[in-house]
Amino acid sequence: MIRNYIKIAWRSLKRNKTYGAINVLGLVLSTASAILIFAFISFHLSFDDFHEEDDQIYRVVTQQKRESVSYSFSAPPALGLVLGQQFDFEEQITRQVNEQNAQISYGDNQKLVLEEGISYVNPSFFEIFNFPVLSGDVASTFEEPGKAAVTEEMANLLFGTTDVIGNTFKVDNSFLATISAVLKDLPSNTFQESQVFLSYPTVKDYNEWYVDPDAWGGITSEVICFVKLKPGVDPADVEKAMLPFPDKYRPGSTNKHTYFLQPLKEMHFDPRYYGPMPERTLWTLGIIGLFLIISACLNFVNLATAQVFNRLKEVGVRKSLGSRRAQLFWQFLTETSLISFTAVILSFLTALLFLPYLNTLAEIELQTDALLNLNLLIFCIIVFGLVTLFSGSYPGLLLARFAPVKALKGKLAGLTVGGLNLRKGLIIVQFVISQVLIIGMLVILKQMRFNQTADLGFDREAVLIVPIGTNNDVADRSSFRQQLLNQADIENVSVCFSPPASGFGWGTGIRMVERDEPEAFHVSVKAGDENYLETFGVTLLAGRNIRHSDTLNEIIVNETMLSKLNYTSPDEILGKYLSVSGNEAVPVVGVVKDFHNSSMHEEISPVVIGSFDNVFFNYAVKVNPQNIKAGLSQIEKTWAELNPDQVFDYGFVDDAIREFYESEERLLSLLKVFTGIAIFIGAMGLFGLVSFMVERKTKEIGVRKVLGSSVAQILWIFGKEFTTLIVIAFVVASPLAWWFSDQWLQDFQFRVDLNVWIFTAAILLTGLVAVVSVIFKVVKAATVNPVKSLRSE
Fold first, then answer.
1. In sequence order, what are the beta bridge partners of 223?
2. SS3 label, residue 748
3. What pLDDT score was predicted for residue 416?
4. Residues 6 or more apart from 356 whose CB is under 8 A from it?
5. What CA dihedral angle connects 774, 776, 779 and 785, to 10 degrees?
6. How far apart are CA 523 and CA 510, in angstroms?
7. Which residues lie below 8 Å from residue 650, measured CB to CB, with a gap of 6+?
8. Residue 307 and residue 23: Cα distance in Å, rounded?
9. Which of 254, 369, 389, 433 could form a disulfide bond with 518, CB atoms 3.0-4.6 angstroms apart?
10. pLDDT: is 420 or 225 the higher one?
11. Which of 195, 199, 93, 186 is nearest to 131 (CA)?
């Protein structure tokens, strides 16, 4: 019986090649998209799940409370030491210091800047995390200073072999490190980015503060503390034990710290602590994948019902010869299963073909084996079963229920649900899906353009940030700056900590001399010399710029600082003395116009600008925008002359700002592709409905042509129906899209408005797709000779 079903199904599909091809194409596109989305989501959900007992591993994070709460994935350097010495909650505890853009010298005086940096870790780091050792030893050697472990990839890059035990390299032109172990290459689904590890006692050569047992006075993003709790230990008990730490070790501080344990599994997803992949992005993509499959299934139903007329006589003959409803139903379901099975196989091959494109688009590193696993196989089986059942049930039941006499006469009454034609209802659902995706894509696109083009209050174009490196005394900095200013395409140079808007910030407290208590709010310190304002084009509203000084002796504040201090005029604060981060109080000599000191996700903070010489880590170089390439060449040449022992490294400010929105940009890139697929699938659905309508109205069209109707008038017969469907879909889609878009925009403190033009564009685009989808079929029917339309067998 099953063999007979398959044989008849194959013959039916051969007779209706267009019907089968369109169904297969729609299902292939939707299922391939769903497979890629599933692989993308699975990849991110798998982050760091390969560590043994990963549910017992936590990162110590900090919440800082002033007027508002800020979040840091770091903790004071001394916290890990105290936690390990005073409590026995943990099986293991480790501190990790990440030095970004570290320079190493190796081999025959070769130098390399590691963008992913290096990590200083305790031996317990390799006991908590399962990064397998290929050769050598980290358990004992990492107790000693100057020991290093590298990955296979890094060993091959530096020395051309993995047999590197005993080899040495120099870090930051400062100290030697001896390789004592080689690790297997790190998987791509881990938080760990650096491929060079140094023993923690070595960190004193980088920054002695990180090994100071009293280092409680601040938090830096370079320091991370991990703990692996003993089985049965409640994280809440550890958090309770850490509650007294701020009062005990940071007495008198207005920056109230609270320390929490963040599960390892949440690190990748929590945007408060700079998790790179918010869960809402995964949910959004998952819903889009579901929408695409639903849309393809709706296509199937529409195209199947469009073919019903062609099969009425077949059904009548079968029923007259004794076929039961169940047999007819299973016959049609078999046809559906053949299409679904073919589509799933082709979609899997399509997903493999487009996997590299997904990697480029989403900036991930999925390998082919990501699509060759049991979970994905189960996913494909579920998709196959649901598509077959959902797409084949209704058409099968529709065909099976016809009375033989009516079927042989070719009569079919319109099936309605609640007074609305079911096929039109399905098209409305497709329109709703398409319009929601289009509106969402346009909203994200508008916000991203706003992020990149909005006036940030400073000049970000053609400004380079060049790390100062090891030659960081006053004379070296002054010499380099002067040499650059002698070049034709260099407009200005400033020595600073970071650009006005940066992911690396220094937040601290302040106290006004005339007030008894420190201020309750948090300020952002922008350490820069007297050239900072001019280099970045920051507008001075009142007072004057700071004067040249090698030490902090005066400061500038921004407008937000005025409002926080309850001043109404810039002149009121000029001459007032402020103490920043416990430093000696200095006068305020100027007020600048507010600028965005972080991303559009955050409000503008109170800002202090001054010559905090101890944190001058970068040069900011403004080059001629018309000749950036020549300016860059001049900087590199000057650097090589004055710093021959250091690799020239740089980055553009506008590139750094774009990095604020990497997650959103990835979502937008994926959404563009999947929205396009949804529109295409929807267009095929329209074609299916038009086919159904043309089949039903062939004689009506013939009669109208005989009575003198033009092609345009006949087109309007169909056009008015589709116009109604589009408008109904828009009425449903608009509030849904508005709600989803508004929820997404809430993550931005500075966001675009949801104006009428976004929704107008969506309905116009949907209308254009509808016109393109139906006009060919309708025009073809409208231009057929009426004699053929009215011919009766």
1. 97
2. coil
3. 42
4. none
5. -130
6. 7
7. 464, 465, 466, 467, 632, 635
8. 12
9. 254
10. 225
11. 186
d(CA 592, CA 136): 56
- The 10 Å CB-count burial string (b at 16+, else e) for 354-370 is bbeebbebbebebeeeb
Most confident of 275-289, 459-473, 525-539, 720-734: 525-539
User: CA-CA distance, 493 to 323, in Å (whole number)?
Assistant: 88
Query: 271 — alpha (psi -120 to 50), left (phi > 0) or beta?
Result: alpha
**What tokens appear for 173 in the block?**
């032109």
Say what angle helices 279-306 and 422-453 make with each other, to 10 degrees: 150
Per-residue pLDDT of 548-602, as tens digits, reads 988 899 999 999 999 999 998 999 999 999 998 888 899 999 999 999 999 999 8
Residue 417's pLDDT band (boundaries 50, 70, 90)? very low
Among 203, 51, 227, which Cα is nearest to 118's? 203
At residue 268, the 3 state secondary structure works out as coil
CA torsion 688-694-697-700 (nearest 10°) is 160
Query: CA angle, 287 as apex, 265 and 190 as ends, to 5°?
Result: 25
Q: Are strands 118-121 and 196-199 parallel, antiparallel or unpaired?
A: parallel
First to last CA, the chain: 34
Average pLDDT in the chain: 84
Q: Look up residue 172 and give its two tokens.
A: 């930051």
Angle between helices 325-362 and 308-320 (to 10 degrees): 150
DSSP per-residue string spanning 177-212:
EEEEEEEPPPPSSSS---SEEEEGGGGGGT-GGGG-
Bridge partners of 89, per DSSP, are none
Alpha helical stretches, state H, 363-497? 374-400, 404-409, 422-453, 474-485
Mean pLDDT of the 158-162 span: 93
Strand pairing category for 175-183 and 147-151:
parallel
Closest CA to 779 of 700, 681, 690: 690
According to DSSP, the residues that pair with 229 across neighbouring strands are 90
CB atoms within 10 A of CB 178: 15
As to burial, measured by CB atoms within 10 angstroms (0-12 exposed, 13-18 middle, 19+ buried), residue 685 is buried
- State how far the Cα of 703 lies from the Cα of 587, in Å rounded to an integer: 92
User: How do residues 630-649 score in pLDDT, each as one tens digit?
Assistant: 999 999 999 999 888 889 99
Q: Look at strands 420-421 and 223-229 and give their pairing.
A: unpaired
**How confident is the model over 443-462, as pLDDT tens digits?**
999 999 999 899 999 999 99
The domain locations on the chain are 1-47+275-413, 59-267, 470-645
CA angle 354, 357, 363 (to 5 degrees): 135
- Residue 367: its pLDDT value, please? 83
pTM for this entry? 0.85
In Å, how far are 197, 250, 254 from 67, measured between CA atoms? 39, 19, 10
Query: What single-letter amino acid sits at 282?
Result: L
pLDDT in tens, 653-680: 999 898 888 888 888 999 999 998 988 8
Interacting residues of 245 by C-beta distance below 8 A, sequence separation 6+: 79, 82, 216, 257, 259
Q: Is there a contact between 674 and 292 (Cβ–Cβ < 8 Å)?
A: yes
CA atoms within 13 A on the CB side of 588: 29
